[in-house]
Amino acid sequence: MFTTFLWALLLIYAAGCTIMQLWLRQRSQASASPPDFKIFQTNYLLVYMLVMCADWLQGPYVYALYESYGFSRRDIAAFFVVGFASSALFGTFIGSLADSLGRKKMSIAFGVFYSLSCLTKLSRSYYILMIGRLLAGISTSLLFSVFESWMVYEHHKRMFADELLSNTFALSTLGNSVIAIISGFLASGAAYAMGFVGPFMVATAILVASSIIVFLSWGENYGDSTMQLQESIQKAVNTVKNDSRIILLGIVQSLFEASMYVFVFMWTPVLAADAAEFTEENSGVHGIVFSGFMLAIMLGSSIFSILISKFNVQRIQQNLLIVAAVIMLVPVFFKSAEVNLFAFMLFEICCGIYFPTQGTLRSYIVPEESRSTIMNFFRVPLNILVVLILLFSDKLSNGFVFLMCSAWLILAAAAQFRLNATPAPSRDNPSDSETPLTTLSTH
User: Fold this and answer.
1) Considering the entire predicted model, what is its pTM?
2) Which of 68, 161, 232, 254 is 20 to 30 A from 283 (CA-CA)?
3) pLDDT of 218-256, one tens digit each?
4) How far is CA 129 from CA 51, 126, 187, in A?
5) Are the C-beta atoms of 137 and 85 separated by less than 8 Å?
6) Burial of 405 (0-12, 13-18, 19+ CB in 10 A)
7) In degrees rounded to 5, what are phi and psi of residue 370?
């Protein structure tokens, strides 16, 4: 019953993605982008897809690799906690380095750090693997800040139209979902050929390739290269203190993405509790559900492309957060695997809408000179919330965890509501990239 329902949802979502992509392609042909923008966008998306592919390759086999080395569940949990903790601890420091030393340099450094993290998987030593998790945490902070910061700066520097920025964010989300599905098959092939360490070796080769492309084709850009590290962090702190919109946007990001990461940990036990297929070792149902989630994110990114042409971006975000909060209540009150799967697919659609929406808002609210630093500020509370869940997950019921996620999303919606009503502060030297939020609508 569950498998039949799952395949039915996959077919519906695949049809929805196909129809929307055909419609969006027709619309994009009617309003062609400048050739130089297409070259710039293609170059950025190529690098972005490569680094995301390297990241996705590792996900399915991290736990399995540690387990094959004989580590206990407690040891494996410690590895994951260290990864999130290092991202929270070093993220702000690394973000400031990117703003002062250059986003191109730190994008290359990302490839180096993450490659070293992958290479530590060749060792069975607990301490070497722990170093690998430290490097992975640092790499994650770079992954979700420096690439976007470089792209946004270059977009405004080259004076491309504002609406094209939203298009890049939408394509990033769409492409990331496609890459995730492809990476799953690639990781399976690598694991079959080389064992559990195989996906990490393939990821290393991809990371090296991405760093070479960045080195050869990207120009350098900075936040404020004249400041020392401490000054850069202090300036970012003062900027956040003086603009409540940045604080509110950070609250939204931390609470939504913390809920998303908790969902990643929780969807399997919730569905497994009521679907016998999850206990069958060779059913392959985990991979099928994952593919369904990626289809849902693709559908969400397509929906965003339609919504942004008709509605104000901050209003889209506010309604999205309310819908996501309601969806998170479903596992609290329903024990049906089919009902929960349907709700989880809807939540993934929300994720597909959220990423380009949040990226668009960040590009207009977060000032250019401290962008990487401030983006990593946002990740500190996010990582703390996720670490707390990891530490106490065995003591909390599934229903309580999802109830907590719903509460986080309600708080995020309240912060977004406040953000929508908050005017931009007056600045002596406003960022060139800053545009009043009231203009972010086609109406």
Assistant:
1) 0.77
2) 68
3) 999 987 656 666 677 788 888 888 889 999 999 999 999
4) 21, 5, 20
5) yes
6) buried
7) -130, 25
